[in-house]
Design brief:
The structure is a homodimer. In chain A, about 75% of the residues lie in helices and about 0% in strands. By secondary structure, chain A is mainly alpha-helical. Chain A has 2 domains: about 100 residues, no CATH class; about 325 residues, Na+/H+ antiporter like fold, CATH 1.20.1530. The interface between A and B is large, with 80 and 81 residues.
Chain lengths: ~450, ~450
């Protein structure tokens, strides 16, 4: 199995052509204005309704995306764009319709996805930077329990249920079950941060477990895609992946203090103002690339870079400087996730959707119960175990990666694809609503945090 | 004449194709790492050598670009990319050579140029935000003198010299002369800011004059391109452009205080944390788009938005939050300008370059003398008139826009194109070297400003 097929979402690139830079520039401005104004509006509304801004960003993405306005469209590219946008570009810049479509889809696919990718990297880097590792080590065993049970329960429940209740064939059923395993660190961590619970014991367990179940989820995905492709598991690649993960984690654990000291020593000799900030970003990008090279998720590398730099003297300064940068680019990630979600499969008027809706309802129940049960398996009754379980519910970007890979290897039926997408949407949407209810004391610290 | 042809640089878009997202993501990380590490290195070296960081960024662009490493390549796209980069992508991600080339040029053209464009907008917005308008109005007449003379002298000197000394035909000679008119606000303002001279009377005159000669340069460009295309001036478009400019400037002058008050009133009602920052960015983007729509440079719109918000209560907070954002994205603009500059035309070993080198030498002399003379035309001997003239010298992005348009309307010979590019490079490179010498008292305030 070739692990580089991970994250395979059909990515439609623009046609070859020479488009005037002024057209490109105007479409860039237009895209930025639309994204910023709608996300700002939704964030403000969510804040006033005491909902999570992440929810606002996801909803603005859904409003902008394929489901509604069709202003932010990623798949099927050209044909799917709202014609009003294209008309506006043509009338303003004098470009032809074809030029406007190419320029717009070019700007959208590359810049929105690029900024979204950098945004989730920045977010995980900042979350790592804010972490208190001594605290995290204490919660390690609990996190392992939550992660292990949170992967096994939805995986088995989903697979068996799809086979018995919906007569899905074995391989697609395994794929559907596997898509339920991995928690979205990005969404969960952002919600916890907004609730002021990132440093609480519950928050640390959730983040630790989310990191672990991402690793487990990636392994399961490797096995499943391998099964789909060859009918057998490619042991060499699996061993490589396990070895790579082990070496990566061990190297960070061993070299963490040395790298932090080296960072302090180097930055002390800097004369240019932005030296420390640039070097920190460089480390985050480099570790993201290394994670990518050894076939882990890039965001795990950025997260590890943040953890390393949390031990430096520059921690507070870096956090302070990265705050506005992250505030500007991280929302783009959630907007893009929302925009890529096609809610038209929800339409109950379409008879073809009905079985998909039932399948989705089943997967959602398994996804939620699996993670909440995993939370309750923690032996300590002092902890808010319900909150831990709910914190593990959102599947977000990881679930969407599974859907993309499923599409690329032609294993998922349209119905199962729709059901998995719905599960991702619902699990992602309910966590920001439920978590503040399960962690009520966090609300007070959220204001102007 | 169709003014939407402004800024026409051949923009090669990638081939249609489906590239895996992991390949796109890895190339994004790779591009970001290369850009950040080389620009960081050059900035640190320049700071230690007491040169301007802008110079470091331009040089890092030249090192990364077509002239040397060919890692950041914009024209002729695919063929010109350093094969080592492509090999690295192929070996790491398992992509085919073709996929790697498409992914890489896709990421490069869209993201580098997109971020560069947003970077120069952010830069001008911040410069506007820092401005002290009461102070600027006082220097208005001096700025008008510098701008007027600084446009007329290089235009006439360049055109007549090209015709008489180098036997260039009338239209290309006019184009060559016109390319010498407009100062690069972005580069000049950044240098002044680093020298701590943005608020000095000299700094205010330079910025004011740079804004004015950009407007004048755009008008001349409109006329010249119209001459080249039709053999006559399109009066309707010219009137439209003049009217648009007048209305834009008048509207800002009249509504400035009201918009600032409205901004303060709205942001006071905000509940979401990032509301004021997002609204400010939205205003900057919207005014950039409006400027673009009425065929002015977008950066003038962002600059105007900054001036408007400099009158709000949020000024200090906004500046504080935008500082790290600008520090990260504005350098990309200067890196891209450097990367697009092909220094291979400098090669004196190539006999075809010799006349081009003489032509360039002539244009450089006219470009420098024209602006320095314009500085000395200010009646007040108390001002550092040499510094004002030198501050007007860099042509930067505006000169490159002229070159791009010249290429698109097939009016410039290769030799004249090369000579104009060289003039842009040299005028852009010498200002950061000479300005600190002409404004020596600024050096002290530069440290950790």
């Amino acid at each position: 199995m070739n692990l580089t097929t991970f994250g395979l979402t059909p990515f439609v690139l623009a046609d070859v052509g020479e488009i005037s830079e002024s057209v490109i520039f105007f479409t860039l401005l237009l895209s930025a204005i639309v994204i910023f104004s709608i996300s700002y509006f939704c964030e403000e509304v969510c804040t006033r309704l005491r909902l999570s801004p992440v929810l606002g960003q996801l909803i603005s993405g859904i409003i902008l995306g394929v489901s509604a306005l069709k202003i932010l469209v990623f798949t099927d590219g050209d044909m799917a764009i709202n014609p009003m946008v294209i008309d506006l570009i043509c009338q303003t810049t004098g470009a032809s319709t074809q030029e406007a479509v190419i320029a717009y889809s070019h700007q959208l696919t590359a810049i929105s996805e690029g900024v979204a990718n950098l945004g989730v990297i920045a977010l995980l880097f900042v979350i790592g930077l804010e972490s208190d590792l001594d605290h995290s080590v204490k919660v390690g065993p609990q996190a392992a329990i939550v992660a292990g049970a949170g992967v096994v329960l939805p995986f088995i429940g989903g697979t068996v249920g799809l086979m018995t209740l919906f007569s899905v064939a074995t391989l697609p059923a395994i794929f559907g079950g596997a898509a339920l395993t991995a928690t979205s660190i990005g969404i969960t961590a952002k919600i916890l941060k907004e609730l002021g619970h990132l440093q609480s014991e519950e928050g640390q367990i959730i983040i630790g477990a989310a990191v672990l179940d991402d690793l487990l989820g990636i392994l399961i995905l490797a096995v499943v895609v391998s099964l789909v492709k060859d009918g057998s598991i490619d042991v060499a690649n699996l061993v490589y992946l396990l070895l790579g993960t082990t070496v990566f984690v061990a190297a960070i654990a061993l070299l963490r203090t040395q790298i932090a000291k080296a960072f302090d020593a180097i930055t002390q000799k800097f004369q240019s103002d932005n030296g420390p900030l640039l070097l920190a970003i460089l480390l985050a990008l480099a570790m993201a690339a290394i994670a990518n090279i050894i076939h882990l998720e890039a965001i795990l590398g950025a997260f590890a870079a943040g953890i390393i730099l949390s031990g430096t003297r520059q921690q507070a300064t870096l956090l302070h400087e990265l705050e506005p940068v992250t505030a500007l680019i991280a929302p783009v990630f959630f907007i893009v996730v929302g925009a890529k979600t096609d809610l038209s499969v929800l339409n109950p008027a379409n008879p073809g959707s009905i079985e998909g809706l039932w399948m989705a309802a089943f997967l959602i129940v398994v996804a939620v119960i699996g993670k909440v049960t995993a939370g309750y398996l923690i032996p300590s009754a002092k902890l808010n175990r319900l909150a831990i379980g709910i914190g593990m519910v959102p599947r977000g970007e990881v679930g969407l990666v599974f859907v993309g890979i499923g599409a690329s290897v032609d294993i998922l039926s349209n119905m199962l694809t729709a059901a998995v997408i719905l599960t991702v949407v619902v699990t992602t949407l309910i966590a920001p609503v439920l978590l503040p209810l399960a962690l009520p004391n966090g609300i007070a610290t959220e204001q102007k945090a």
